[in-house]
Amino acid sequence: MTETPNLEVEESINNLVREFYREARQDSLLGPIFNSAIEDWDVHLRIVADFWSKALLKTERYSGSPFPLHMKMPVELEHFERWLALFEETAKATLPAEYGAKAIAKARHMAESFKAGIFIFVDKNGRPARHPG
């Protein structure tokens, strides 16, 4: 199996990030969350591309943890479901298959980890919740 040159994959990662956020900003559920949370889109897109470059190619451009930032956002379970669906669709369309599969697996793991860290209570209907009750 021949590996895709990293430069090609880097460009695919940049396309993934641009396309995902282009769609997410216009999405009726995700748009308001992202548009109110992100002030400088150029900086944000670069940081997210660096994150995915580290996750997929083991580069060292990203350091930090995305969880604390997401913890502060007013997200609910349906936001994660929509984010993941849009991300998976975009990853399949923009990344080489091998890297798309890796990105989707990482995104699914992140979504589950974030939900476990954010929704630490159960509401009266038995659904995960941010607050008790």
Polypeptide structure, described:
It is a single chain. This protein is mainly α and about 130 residues long. The chain has one domain (about 5-130): Globin-like, CATH 1.10.490.10. It is about 70% helix and about 5% strand. The protein has 6 helices and 2 strands, in the order ααααααββ. The protein has a two-stranded antiparallel sheet. Helix 1 crosses helix 3 and helix 5 (about 75-95) packs antiparallel against helix 6. The chain is globular and about 50 Å long. One of its GO terms (molecular function) is heme binding. Keywords: Plasmid. This is Hemoglobin.
Summarize it.
This is Hemoglobin. This protein has 133 residues and is mainly α.
Number of strands: 2
Give the H and E element order. Answer: HHHHHHEE
CATH class: Mainly Alpha
First-to-last CA distance: 53 Å
Q: What share of residues is helical?
A: 55-70%
**At the fourth CATH level, what is the homologous superfamily?**
Globins
User: Within the CATH hierarchy, at the fold level, what is the topology?
Assistant: Globin-like
Order of neighbouring strands in the sheet with most strands: 1-2
* Domain unit count: 1
Structural class: mainly alpha
Low-confidence stretches: none
Biggest pleated sheet: 2 strands, antiparallel
The rough form would be described as: globular
Task: Compute the CA-based radius of gyration.
Answer: 16 Å
Q: What is the number of helices?
A: 6
> Kindly state the mean pLDDT as a whole number?
94
The amount of beta strand, in percent, is under 5%
Q: Which architecture would the CATH scheme give at its second level? A: Orthogonal Bundle
